Amino acid sequence: MKKVSLLILAALALAAQTVADGPRYNADGALQLPKNYREWIYLSSGLGMTYGPAASANTQNPAFDNVFVNPTSYRAFVETGHWPDKTTFILEVRNATEHGSINNGGHFQSDIRAIEAEVKDEKRFPQKWAFFGFGRKDVGTPNPATSSCNQCHGANAAVENTFVQFYPTLLEIAKTKGTLNASYLQKSAEAAPAAH
Amino acid sequence: MKKVSLLILAALALAAQTVADGPRYNADGALQLPKNYREWIYLSSGLGMTYGPAASANTQNPAFDNVFVNPTSYRAFVETGHWPDKTTFILEVRNATEHGSINNGGHFQSDIRAIEAEVKDEKRFPQKWAFFGFGRKDVGTPNPATSSCNQCHGANAAVENTFVQFYPTLLEIAKTKGTLNASYLQKSAEAAPAAH
After folding, report:
1. How many beta-carbon contacts under 8 Å exist across A and B?
2. Taking a C-beta distance cutoff of 8 angstroms, is the pair B165, A100 a contact?
3. d(CA A92, CA A70)
4. Which residue from A2, A166, B94, B112 has the fewest beta carbons nearer than 10 Å?
5. How far apart are CA A66 and CA A44, in angstroms?
């Protein structure tokens, strides 16, 4: 009987782990940086991505950005094309190095420059999704609901409030499941060359 | 007793899962592409990385490369700074897109251009590590032991036969565990500016 109890406990602990990757907050509402986000599901990277005018691009000192999502939400998205409540994205910004070891051209990743997060927490945030800046710290303060992050994601995101258009494996899933935002589809159609 | 047996079976199945992410080969020695490598541990990305002369860099059409490693081997490396037998790296090469959605500068990732793998399999390969090219297929043929991949990794790798110098989180672990190759340390010292 003891063995059974121990195994049941172990099974319960494993089950708990699978939903334990949601957001955790301090008493003041700051988001705790998930310590193991590098072991979450990787979505994609960019280098020097620039959402404003091209002239504002930092071409001299571009940064890599790596995006990770909590595994529980990833599995839900693969099944449904939707993000469940408690979905947490981590955006890791890293310096880009050109010359090092045997690399003579292009860029590879070096030190962390900053970390940001996007969280879906329907009860906590009236706008459902919120953005957090960590800088180099392990707690992130929430941006106001009127922040440029909220506004730009709200206007341009491919799925719900997230930039799935930049995550190639998820974009295919969203197309298959039919969960692309109507506003995204409309803008994509306008941007595509007219068929003659 | 039945419950105990079922739970033990479940526990054994879980244990088996944790070592089930090693290499699988066809009868002809070709490596099967692990279907879920995108859910493995992400190590890092580069854009347009060039190991030959800088003049050979493809600056007009650079590619992203994303590196993933099987979770079992990752956990062993975090503990020891060494790669266990059956370690499998997947190198995913993706096209880089500059203009799309709201991106006006820099690059984000789009379609897969090619996939490669590096595998440590001590009994199968006299040189312990082997390299495989998949192209866009789901089976990869092994490169000969004299391939440029083997030679360049053998001469320049930071840890065993792997380019840990380009994986920032693992490089820190290797430094702490003291598992950097002597040849890598010597080249790094020679490349560093002399202390005066």
Report:
1. 145
2. yes
3. 14
4. A2
5. 6
Contact between chains at B4 and A7 (C-beta distance less than 8 A)? yes
Q: How far apart are CA A11 and CA A13, in angstroms?
A: 5
**pLDDT at A139 (0 to 100):** 97
Q: Which of A5, A37, A44 best tests the B interface by mutation, with the highest count of B CBs <10 A? A: A44
Inter-chain CB proximity B54 and A104 less than 8 Å = yes
Residue whose tokens read 């298959």: A176
| 3-class SS shares of chain B: helix, strand, coil, % to 5 | 35, 30, 35
The phi and psi torsions of A175 (rounded to 5 degrees) equal -60, -45
Within 10 angstroms of residue A45's Cβ, the number of other Cβ atoms is: 26
DSSP 8-state code for residue B193: P
pLDDT of residue A58: 84
Surface-to-core class of residue A43, CB atoms within 10 Å of its CB (0-12 exposed, 13-18 middle, 19+ buried) = buried
Separation CA A165–CA A68 (nearest Å) = 15
Please write the tens of the pLDDT for every residue from B56-83: 888 888 999 999 999 999 999 999 999 9
Task: Please state the φ and ψ torsions of residue A192, each to the nearest 5 degrees.
Answer: -75, 145
Q: Which residue of B has its CA nearest to A42?
A: B42
Assigned token pair, A154: 């709200």
CA–CA distance, A81 with A78 (Å, rounded to integer): 6
Residue A44, C-beta contacts closer than 8 angstroms, at least 6 positions apart:
A66, A67, A166, A167, A168, A169, B108, B109
Q: Is B70 on the interface with A (CB under 8 A)?
A: no
ipTM of the complex, rounded to two decimals = 0.88
Residue whose tokens read 């991505």: A49
